[in-house]
Amino acid sequence: MRHPLCHLRGAGIRALRSEGLQVDVLGEDLRSKIFEDALKSCRMVNAPLLYRAASRVPFSVLKYAMTLDGKIAASSGHASWISSKLSRSRVFELRGRSDAVIVGGNTVRRDNPRLTARHGGRHVPARIVMSQTLNLPEVANLWDVTEVPTIVVTQRGANRSFQRLLAAKGVEVVEFDMLNPRDVMEYFYDRGYLSILWECGGSLAAPAISAGVIHKVYAFVAPKIIGGKHAPTPVGELGMVEMTQALDLIDVSYEQVGPDMLISGFLQPIPDLAPVIPSVDETYAIDPSVAEFESKIIFFYKTWDPYGAFSNFSHHPIHMSDDSGNYVTWQSVEHYYQANKFVGGDDPMAEEYLNAIKSAASPEEAARLGRRLQRQHPELARPDWDSVKVDVMYNALKCKFSMYPHLHSMLLSTAGSVLVEASPHDLFWGGGRDGEGLNYLGRLLMKLRSEFLGEPSESSEETCLAF
């Protein structure tokens, strides 16, 4: 099957075919009932890549073990062991296929887990603890990071003294303005995580499901009954009052593991990211160097391919002049773009937001911060943003491609090709999953290319313009 990301799609197929090998793509070259089943199997194997590309969060699996009467622990909190040794071995396998395992504070306090894969010599996932208050024990197995790293995510300002204690032990602490599963998963998406295994209790599982970040469920059901009116269940309150509101699993599988039954299935359909090549009709009007027929299309996306430097997220600092005529260095085009949302206001908070974005550790963090602040405090954003944001981006791109000769040459080398920002989700700057996006970033680069090539355009005397 083709890779879910446009900028990587087809390269392997072309390389194999160029060597004279026959390559058949399921669903394209091969079509029949047998191949439809094969494609489905292929998509299930590649589910982490597909979900991550489609939802922009890591592929997340919720795992729990429960009794026949739906309890994950006794009323006292004791939970060792509900499932069999064979089932626990399967859990170690799940951990070994994950980039990280995530739990909540209750699990740390009650179970003091290690969250290791225990299979010897192979991949060991990172451990993530989500805790809003950091009301956690000072001594815990997860604070031993000699072999496996632990990351604690929490609310900004929570229990500073305990944060210092964790830092002294080598545990990484990450603060969020509002701690919720969606923001946490977007953060770990930006850090490059592919798949995460949730081994949390019901109080964290419920908001994770509600936030839409859980994609698959593995439920180990043990032939035991423990009862208990207050015994915890695997999923907390979801706000549902009728059975018609229940969430149905998709592609459900049943497997006996020792005395236990393993039930697994997807909460969301596996995304189909089949490529659709966008039309070049409107592109020709922007960049006449592009042929109207049989034009080559160059996809780029962040910094993951040979043309990734075209992205506003590439790590190329730019120098832009401020209102006083002084040149200011920005870590990337994206830093400059996001900060401009708060330029020109009299409110000191707007200036504070601008500086926070400017000092963000990465373009991804600058983007996340700028979007969140604009959403939470729209009154502090410049009122003309929608009408000026394209010009802001263009000026920053022009500065970047004027400052770096190798980027300038790379852009000119694409003359005659359509440039498409391959984000499947950004329908304004990107081309969209099905070519339905406006692709404004690609358009601006083609416009800039025309200007550099001497096509009729605006004056290019000023390369690094003011706010």
From TrEMBL:
Pathway the protein acts in: Cofactor biosynthesis; riboflavin biosynthesis; 5-amino-6-(D-ribitylamino)uracil from GTP: step 3/4
Residue ranges occupied by any Bacterial bifunctional deaminase-reductase C-terminal domain in the UniProt entry: 59-262
GO molecular function annotation: 5-amino-6-(5-phosphoribosylamino)uracil reductase activity; diaminohydroxyphosphoribosylaminopyrimidine deaminase activity; hydrolase activity, hydrolyzing N-glycosyl compounds; NADP binding
Highest taxon above the source species: Eukaryota
GO terms (BP aspect): carbohydrate derivative metabolic process; riboflavin biosynthetic process
Keyword Zinc-finger: no
InterPro entries per the UniProt record, alphabetical: DHFR-like_dom_sf (IPR024072), Eubact_RibD (IPR004794), NADAR (IPR012816), RibD_C (IPR011549), RibDG_C (IPR002734), Riboflavin_Biosynth_HTPR (IPR050765), YbiA-like_sf (IPR037238)
Domain NADAR: 299-452
Keywords attached to this entry: Glycosidase, Hydrolase, NADP, Oxidoreductase
KW Oxidoreductase (keyword) present: yes
EC number: 1.1.1.193
Enzyme class: oxidoreductase
Catalytic activity: 5-amino-6-(5-phospho-D-ribosylamino)uracil + H2O = 5,6-diaminouracil + D-ribose 5-phosphate; 2,5-diamino-6-hydroxy-4-(5-phosphoribosylamino)-pyrimidine + H2O = 2,5,6-triamino-4-hydroxypyrimidine + D-ribose 5-phosphate
CDD domains assigned to the protein according to its UniProt record, in alphabetical order: NADAR
Name by which UniProt lists this protein: 5-amino-6-(5-phosphoribosylamino)uracil reductase
